[in-house]
Design goal:
The complex is a heterodimer. By secondary structure, chain A is an alpha/beta fold. Chain A has 12 helices and 17 strands. Chain A is globular, with a radius of gyration of 21 Å. The chains are: A alpha/beta, B alpha+beta.
Chain lengths: ~400, ~130
């Protein structure tokens, strides 16, 4: 029996420590991991908890991230609660197995501490790895600070393991900005956190020896399509209501409110920035400064990235006059992902809002308040003109001559 | 399973070999087990073969090497006595012939008549026991 870990009501944790404690409180059966900056402390802290008797499960030191996720898949198919963490190159190496995890409908929690992808080699935060995972069939939840990381880990276990869902989930946080920045985190006692997550209920587990089952069977053109359709259906139809229910119950338990789409100063907003990760909080601060000047500036943060809350985002943005989508990943040959997603969400509505795209913060380049002020100034001009007054895609915080496209 | 739509099969890429519980399956002969529809037991792969192994029981010492080594469980043996070969599932790999220490198992072309083969069974090439 695991030892009780006595926590203060408020701890000073970075995002990694918040994730480690959430995994400990969920009493994960198997953590299989391979270390990579900046996610390493998550599994390192967890290993310390285990060595000190605070965890009952198994810890597997894998030979690579591909091996780590493969172990997680095996353990999940066997019938255990499973979690791990990775970043960047490690995430890229896991990619093949990520599709297996979701296709096999195995609930696995992956903490992704977002980091740039080489080349050039870079350990700092951007959203390249998060974007790489977006077609892999996983639930993807984004965090803006260590408190979010703690809460979203607990939510992700619940949703992922629900027998109506059975899909793996990623909880994303920004490398270093969240993962290594200690902040106040309101905690739950071990038993309260565990009860919120709930006892793991196996399904089709391979350790049920009386009911043998083959996992990972092959299908070709005869059945592959039906399996993928069923998986997509679960992701599209069942996940959003379950996440909402978990958010509601978390609010009852803690008073902390999370939303599929985080709206800030949006009720009467004429200009809005849409972004993810730590940038959301910076943009919120800038929008407050603009509000003090009488400018109706708001922020929309994406909390649930997959499944994409298309209708909720359209509702949040359709009454604006100008929107900037901020992508922290090089789109390498097109507009940013958020520009495409938001365009798709708004295209069939009657909105006349003007949409532009900014690429920022690659490889951990800071997003400054002055950059955000200049984005909002562009948006004011766009809103007034009723059409883009700038190129559709611009790079901000970049050295040298202005870089823009379309 | 074949009549199912996308929304009516079990989730995940899983197959169940048996209908219902299989807690005592080790004590039931393969042909008597309650296989599920998705089990491959009823599917013949006989047309994968270009050569087939034939068994001459007179030469067999019932060592069970072939039964252990066959990758497709196609050697039929009862109470440690060789009976025959399951030609619905044998793919003609020839491993049984390789591991046979006597002259009891030999490969023949798929179209070879079994009775004729048994009547004209080739002599052992030499009397040495094969090294395995």
């Amino acid at each position: 029996m695991a030892e009780l870990f006595e926590l203060n009501a408020i701890e000073v944790w970075d995002g990694n420590m918040a994730a480690s404690h959430a995994l400990r409180q969920a009493q994960v059966d198997v953590v299989a991991a391979y270390p990579i900056t900046p996610s390493t402390p998550i599994v390192e802290n967890y290993g310390t908890f285990m060595a000190n008797g605070y965890v009952d499960g198994e810890y597997v030191m894998a030979e690579s991230e591909h091996g780590a996720m493969s172990c997680c898949i095996g353990a999940a198919a066997a019938g255990g609660r499973v979690a791990t963490a990775t970043s960047s190159q490690g995430f890229a190496l896991m990619l093949e197995t990520l599709y297996s995890a979701s296709g096999m409908r195995l609930p696995i929690l992956l903490n992704v501490v977002n980091r740039a992808i080489a080349a050039p080699l870079n350990v700092n935060g951007d959203h390249s790895d998060m974007y790489m995972g977006r077609d892999s069939g996983w639930i993807q939840i984004d965090c803006y600070n260590p408190q979010d990381v703690y809460d979203m880990n607990l939510v992700a276990f619940r949703v992922s393991e629900d027998h109506d869902i059975r899909l793996p989930a990623m909880v994303h946080q920004d490398g270093f900005m969240t993962s290594h920045t200690a902040q106040r985190v309101k905690t739950l006692p071990d038993d309260v956190a565990y009860n919120f997550v709930g006892e793991y209920k196996p399904m089709n587990d391979m350790l049920d020896l009386d009911n043998p089952v083959t996992h990972g069977a092959q299908t070709e053109e005869d059945w592959h399509f039906e399996h993928k359709a069923r998986q997509h259906h679960a992701l599209m139809s069942d996940v959003i209501p379950k996440i909402q229910k978990a958010f509601d119950e978390l609010k009852t338990l803690t008073g902390r409110q999370y939303n599929l789409v985080e709206k800030y100063n949006m009720d009467d907003a004429e200009i809005a920035i849409v972004c993810m990760g730590t940038s959301v909080e910076t943009a919120e601060e800038v929008s407050n400064e603009l509000r003090a000047q009488g400018i109706k500036a708001g922020v929309v943060g994406i909390r649930v990235f997959r499944p994409f809350p298309l209708e909720q985002i359209a509702a949040a943005l359709k009454n604006t006059k100008a929107i900037a989508t901020l992508d922290r990943s090089s789109p390498n040959g097109t507009v940013g992902m958020l520009f495409n997603e938001i365009s798709g969400a708004l295209f069939n509505t009657d909105t006349k809002t003007v949409l532009t795209n900014y690429i920022y913060g690659l490889g951990g380049r800071d997003l400054t308040k002055s950059s955000l002020h200049s984005v909002y100034r562009h948006l004011q001009a766009n809103a007034q003109a009723g059409h883009p007054t700038t190129p559709l895609q611009q790079f901000i915080g970049l050295r040298g001559p202005v870089l823009s496209f379309f | 399973m074949l009549e199912n739509g996308w929304n009516s099969f079990e989730i995940g890429t899983i197959l169940r070999p048996f209908e219902g519980s299989a807690s005592d399956v080790a004590h039931i002969l393969p042909e008597d087990r309650t296989y599920s529809k998705s089990n491959s037991f009823s599917v013949s792969v006989a047309d994968w073969r270009i050569e087939k192994p034939l068994l001459k029981l007179d030469e067999c010492i019932h060592c069970q090497f072939c039964w252990i080594y066959c990758p497709d469980m196609s050697i039929i043996s009862r109470d440690k006595k060789m009976v025959s070969i399951d030609f619905d599932h044998c793919k003609g790999c020839g491993i049984c012939v390789e591991v046979c220490p006597t002259n009891a198992l030999l490969m023949f072309p798929e179209q070879q008549d079994e009775a004729a083969a048994l009547a004209n069974w080739p002599e052992a090439k030499n009397n040495e026991v094969k090294e395995n």
